[in-house]
Design goal:
Elements: E1 6-11, E2 31-32, E3 35-36, H1 37-47, E4 52-57, H2 60-70, H3 75-79, E5 88-91, H4 100-110, E6 117-119, E7 124-127, H5 130-139, E8 144-150, E9 159-163, E10 166-171, E11 183-191, H6 193-201, H7 203-211, H8 216-226, E12 231-235, E13 240-243, H9 247-260, H10 263-266, E14 269-272, E15 275-277, H11 282-296, E16 300-308, E17 313-314, E18 318-325, E19 330-331, E20 336-338, E21 341-342, E22 347-348, E23 353-355, E24 358-359, E25 364-365, E26 370-372, E27 375-376, E28 381-382, E29 387-393, E30 398-399, E31 404-410
Parallel strand pairs: 1-4, 1-6, 4-5, 8-12, 15-16, 16-18, 17-19, 18-20, 18-21, 19-22, 20-23, 21-24, 22-25, 23-26, 24-27, 25-28, 26-29, 27-29, 28-30, 29-31
Antiparallel strand pairs: 2-3, 6-11, 7-13, 8-11, 9-10, 14-15
Helix pairs in contact: 6-7
Length: 418
């Protein structure tokens, strides 16, 4: 086998760190830059000439939402003309799994995958030449190759120690001050199926399956290293990688990609310096023209890099900087939005200020509200003249008018994710 054709993506878990954005939403379907995270991953795999992607969905909600959006994947080539081949999506049948490594094992066995494959986590955004990773993997006779990235902040990430190029130690989510290196696990692997099969057929592997210890980072990789499997680390020197595991990292990735200003990645046209507008229909074009004319007259101010979705209305005397505004949003007059993501079909009233925040889908924010460093779940309602600082609001919650909340979580309605 001289190239990677197959990728496996585990889609499960509750994504607790990304709440409230993932309450009631599969993390694979969380929208960033006006599309689901998983769509960016599949596009990167398609760009790397992958032909088959197997999705290890766990639970009814994950399966239903992911399948209903992506189906078999044949539409991807139609939507993105720069992809020159079909990419086929397949799904894991209804098996119960305790971790991402078990999902990979089941997919591998169910579909009879016998060639080397890539594993990618569903909450990562990355740009990487996977052909180079596979060449590295093959030339060293590796059983598993982990793509590593050197970072300053290792909080919440797995950390590897290399002896030359081989992984000699792996620690999952150490305290930052105790981390043995700054090389973190990106969750991107190249795996030899016979090695993974051998591990899970061993006494240790069977015990891991029996006791539900099947997370790659927490259980499997450390044991593979300890047991003498040939686990190598490929250190990223080019491209980019982001773990969208927390709201803060979500916003960091969003800003980076906005400033990358790749029209193909943003699926948009730069109509003003640093301002990218999406949509090709006659209505979208008319709205683009209106936005451009208002900006040229000084009625709308844009700063930094901005992505505007389809069929979005922007009132006069607004200022938008370093932000992503999703489809079908209404931004009222006199509002200021900075360093934030506004998801689709949200309504922002007049004279609203939103800074370093994520506003979920179908959110209604009344006039005069201030939202800073806060994360608002889907379908929430924020009353007029409220002030929210460092607040997490769960989906479907209502904040009364004139409320002043700081360092608070609004979580009166519990939601169970399955």
């Amino acid at each position: 086998m001289n190239k990677l054709r197959v990728a496996l993506i585990p889609v499960g878990g509750e994504a607790v760190r990304l709440r409230p954005i993932t309450v009631g939403t599969s993390k694979a379907l969380v929208r960033i830059l006006n599309r689901p995270i998983l769509e960016f991953i599949i596009l990167e795999l398609a760009t790397n000439s992958f032909e088959e992607v197997y999705l290890g969905v766990r639970g009814y909600y994950n399966y239903r939402s992911v399948y209903d959006y992506f189906r078999e994947g044949y539409w991807i080539r139609v939507k993105y003309p720069f992809i020159d081949h079909d990419i086929r999506l397949r799904y894991m049948p209804r098996y119960e799994t305790s971790g991402n490594a078990e999902a990979v094992k089941i997919l591998m066995e169910y579909y009879g995958i016998e060639e080397p494959f890539a594993v990618v986590q569903c909450d990562n955004l990355f740009k990487l030449d996977l052909a180079k990773v596979f060449e590295f993997h093959r030339d060293r006779g590796a059983n598993m190759t982990i793509v590593l990235k050197e970072v300053e902040d290792v909080t919440g990430l797995g950390v590897a120690v290399l002896d030359g190029e081989r992984v000699s130690r792996f620690v999952e989510k150490p305290r930052p001050e105790e981390a043995p290196s700054r090389l973190v696990n990106t969750g991107i692997y190249v795996v030899e199926p016979d090695a993974l099969e051998r591990f899970f057929n061993s006494e240790t592997g069977r015990e891991f399956l029996r006791t539900g210890r099947t997370d790659f980072g927490q259980h499997v990789i450390p044991k593979l290293v300890e047991s003498g499997y040939r686990v190598y680390g490929y250190v990223m020197r080019e491209g980019y990688w982001f773990d969208i595991g927390t709201p803060e990292r979500y916003l960091e990735a969003m800003r980076f990609l906005l400033y990358l200003r790749d029209p193909q990645l943003l699926e948009a046209v730069e109509k003003l310096p640093g301002v990218f507008l999406q949509g090709k229909s006659a209505k979208s074009v008319a709205l683009h023209r209106e936005i451009v004319e208002k900006a040229e007259k000084g009625l709308i101010k844009f700063s930094g890099s901005v992505l505007m979705g389809r069929h979005t209305l922007v009132g006069s005397n607004t200022h938008i900087e370093d932000s992503s505004i999703d489809n079908y949003c209404v931004i009222g007059p006199g509002s200021y939005i900075s360093g934030s993501a506004i998801m689709d079909r949200s309504y922002i009233g007049e004279n609203v200020k939103i800074v370093n925040s994520i506003i979920g889908r179908h959110v209604y924010i009344e006039d005069g509200t201030i939202i800073i460093n806060s994360y608002i779940g889907d379908n929430a309602y924020i009353g007029a003249r409220s002030k929210l600082i460092n607040v997490k609001t769960w989906p479907h919650e209502r904040i009364p008018q004139n409320a002043h909340l700081e360092n608070y979580e609004v979580e009166t309605h519990r939601h169970q994710e399955t």
